[in-house]
Amino acid sequence: MLNKVVIVGGGTAGWMTASYLKAAFGDRINVTLVESGHVGAVGVGEATFSDIRHFFEFLGLKEKDWMPACNATYKLAVRFENWREKGHYFYHPFEQMRSVNGFPLTDWWLQQGPTDRFDKDCFVMPSVIDAGLSPRRLDGTLIDQPFDEGADEMQGLTMSEHQGKTQFPYAYQFEAALLAKYLTKYSVERGVKHIVDDVQQVNLDDRGWISGVTTAEHGDISGDLYIDCTGFRALLINKALDEPFISYADTLPNDSAVALQVPMDMEKRGIMPCTTATAQDAGWIWTIPLMGRVGTGYVYAKDYLSPEDAERTLREFVGPAAADVNANHIKMRIGRSRNSWVNNCVAVGLSSGFVEPLESTGIFFIHHAIEQIAKNFPNEDWNPNQRVLYNRSIAHVMDGIREFLVLHYVAAKRQDTQYWRDTKTRAIPDSLAERLEMWKTQVPDSESIFPYYHGLPAYSYMCVLLGMGGIEMKPSPALALSDPAAAEREFAAIRDKTRRLTETLPKAYEYFAQHH
């Protein structure tokens, strides 16, 4: 039986993988994690999809167990600022899209929207976020949603199996380094062997499979399955096994970032429960509020902006609080390995692939990959079909997210710099071009978006198209013949619920100050 797993590389990817595999297989599997004491983590992946809660559920962890240790906060949406024009903003929330007479409420909004704000007319969360509120009350009870928290029949499903069945109202924001530290303790307590050492060589046998890794102080370490969590270095999958890397740079040119971790008085500042993406002259700046600090960074394309100018812009954006904070400059490798499972090696995290962090996909990619490893874990016959299924699933997720992120730039109305003008003439995936033509006359639905699981439902596409403003959207012609009364009642119900929640929910900081 194959049961010896060697994970090369730590950080969030390595320790999420180690903890998940131990939770899945217990003592029936031997896991060794080797990480260097000298290689720092990239550390931009602090915001998540709402599906990440399934990871913590699988490990048997409650929010009270891990959130305080990771300075974590809630994320109810992504807030996009200045993508349409300076001063404009909209939300892409974690909230189930309502339907009326078989049409999504956004379609009715195009026909007869009460205001010019699709997000506040069609969803509750944008107003909750604007008020800086928590989705949980001080006693811990969750905001009322069409969602049964902790339902037994939903436990143990993978993210793809959950999609369409539920929409949890929030994701998390946390310090990635603190989560890795927390999961290190969790994993070691459950039997993971932790070795801090530098891998000097990856050894291959006559077939080209990995036979072991040679470390500086612990010598040779061998296993059955090797998991590459070495980040952009891709020490095993790309360097040792020479698996080709497929670049996405032709459609997603942002290849650099500069990040700051800015200590702040969050009680005074308040916590806006969302991740903000603020468009800039040559990219965009993320803002992630945590307990005790704000994580922020400028994602940009080096062809349009120098690292020095990017750092200066970021510091000016943050203000005086950033004056003495060290900047972390990051070169991003945008794209994916052609195959993320080759022979007896699986790449997880940045070694597998990465797109820019615009929709907080980095942690999602890790979570999805380790779910698929557990689902397709090999035995002695190394059935090649398992590798095929795994690689197909990873490629679909990466390629689907690529399309979704490209859509942001194509759909953005902003054209005030060369960077933004070029987003309208740059090549886009052929399949996205075809879909865009359909969406101009029929809003996105599950049949017209990227056809394979990639973590994003159709309403996410609607939010981007309606919010960015660069592509004219039209309501379905059938709505002109439909009675609008039911849609009007739904818009009114959202207004009533929004008013009720904003009057009764606590401030986000107040909630976390009590529970941390």
Automatic annotation (TrEMBL):
Belongs to the flavin-dependent halogenase family. Bacterial tryptophan halogenase subfamily. It holds the Pfam family Trp_halogenase. Signal peptide: none annotated. SUPFAM superfamilies: FAD/NAD(P)-binding domain. It comes from Streptomyces violascens. This is Tryptophan halogenase.
